[in-house]
Write a structure and sequence with these properties.
With 153 residues, the chain is an alpha+beta fold. Helix content is 34%, strand content 26%. The longest helix has 15 residues.
Length: 153
């Protein structure tokens, strides 16, 4: 799907942080871990992201409103003969824009961005409870090839 003519992909700005945080909080998992009432930690995180050339916080912008977001991180490694890989995180589409293909477009744009940075692989994780998201990623060609682990610090 091509994006509607009035939606463009761009790097997020600090002014976008409230809209991004609202989208992060607008789902069952995000509602338990995000706090849109206090933007201080999000603004600090945004400054770190903005200062790192390997971090790309991308937003789908519709006439000045953020309607989608994802973070693309470029990772360097020695495996796969020194290949770079891209990690997609925090994919969200604003509730009133879900179901119209915007999420697919956003992921395809992120894959193209990864390709333009010379990445040999794009990877992402998804909480095991997000069955709809798993089907979505599989429709886009992603394969569930690994088991992931986390250790809270």
């Amino acid at each position: 799907m091509l994006a509607p003519m009035d939606i463009v992909l761009r790097h997020a700005t600090s002014a976008d942080v409230p809209e991004i945080v609202a989208m992060l909080a607008d789902d069952p998992l995000g509602a338990t871990r995000e706090n849109p009432a206090d933007l201080t930690p999000y603004r600090a995180a945004f400054a770190r992201i903005e200062g790192d050339p390997q971090q790309h916080l991308l937003v789908a912008d519709e006439e000045g409103a953020v309607v989608g977001v994802l973070q693309l991180s470029i990772l360097f490694g020695l495996s796969r003969q020194g290949a770079s890989r891209a990690l997609i995180e925090a994919v969200r589409v604003r509730a009133d824009h879900r179901g119209g293909g915007l999420g697919s477009w956003l992921i395809r744009q992120a894959v193209e961005e990864a390709r333009s940075h010379g990445c040999a692989l794009v990877q992402l994780t998804s909480d095991r409870t997000r069955a709809d998201a798993h089907r979505f990623y599989e429709r886009l060609g992603f394969e569930a090839t690994h088991v992931g682990y986390k250790l809270p610090l």
